Amino acid sequence: MSDRLPGFSTLAVHAGAQPDPTTGARATPIYQTTSFVFNDADHAASLFGLQAFGNIYTRIGNPTNAVLEERVAALEGGTAALAVASGHAAQVVVLQQLLQPGDEFIAARKLYGGSINQFAHAFKSFGWNVVWADPDDVASFERAVTPRTKAIFIESIANPSGSITDIEAISTVARKAGVPLIVDNTLASPYLIRPIDHGADIVVHSLTKFLGGHGNSLGGIIVDAGTFDWSAGSKYPMLSEPRPEYHGIRLQETFGNFAFAIACRVLGLRDLGPALSPFNAFMILTGIETLPLRMQKHCDNAKAVAEFLAGHPAVSAVNYAGLASDKYNQLARKYAPKGAGAVFTFSLKGGYDAGVSLVSKLQLFSHLANVGDTRSLVIHPASTTHSQLDDAAKMKSGAGPDVVRLSIGIEDKEDLIADLGQALGA
Ligand SMILES: *Cc1c(COP(=O)(O)O)cnc(C)c1O
Question: What is the pTM assigned to this prediction?
């Protein structure tokens, strides 16, 4: 072997995987088993006491999932990762390690609609209070910090607006406040943006989207950057205090720069239970092998479609950070020089009714609530994903009544443009 460090595309194919030691299988096998036999009683005891690493039960870990975890950790530049059943499960497990009842976290207002609901409503019943800030106004994060603030949560490329967040500026606020910065990197994928390189302490993904990439499997993942000191003060007792369920060990002291990933596994996943099926891990691993090829095609197609829409008379505005005229183009050039992603919104002169009409006339685009599929997708957020928000909140999250969201696939761009042309013109 040369001493060259492997590049991104090589890691996407190989990181975490070895030929199977028993059978020689080259693709990662699906270890479709609930449980694993111990070598002997001492081995069993050491696994349960966290004195040795190994497989116990698939709710806590599985060899297929472990390859996925190692691969995404490598692609994101983190120390370790934990795969879970969905993107939303990743968010619950992360925040459960950080917040006690009565605590707060600051979240960007421009987020995936499901995350807005989860944070504002479901988390309230856990006693976790979200405080919203404006990702375009870094000072609004600074103003929101209180002694109960335990984390800051942003999206690198926001869903549905496609706007780019100034990760470095917000990471400076987090560092000053002594709290970790969590970045949802779902829409960018590590091919476009690696948040850890810009100061993120924790990265979360919905693997359901671009990483899996084929619209066939749900999954989520948490990546630990290994950068945060959990023992400062007594702010993060899950990490810094003795754990009664593990003979009084302190996770930060025992596991150092991957303590957060361990906490998510042995306290979050073990006790809350949202384990990823090894079959889904296999599907997502297969998807990740082509991530660099797909992501580049997604972005190149998105730019061509955005340019077409920008010149169309029925369209009042296109919000794609990859267009030179876009408000976020400077941030896109800095954070996502290979492409500004494939999810963006545009506005129709005909308002709400035109949005509803467009989704019904498109043929190649599928009208559904997902992004990051090989297929091109369309949705009208105001009548679907963001319909629960009041009008002011819809506008603030980039989902006004005239807004249509596209997720551009990897088809031929000429066919996508022709389909939009017929649906807009008819
Ligand atoms: C889809 C999505 C989620 C939630 O992921 P699930 O896998 O559907 O639970 C979170 N964040 C973003 C940006 C998403 O697009």
Answer: 0.96
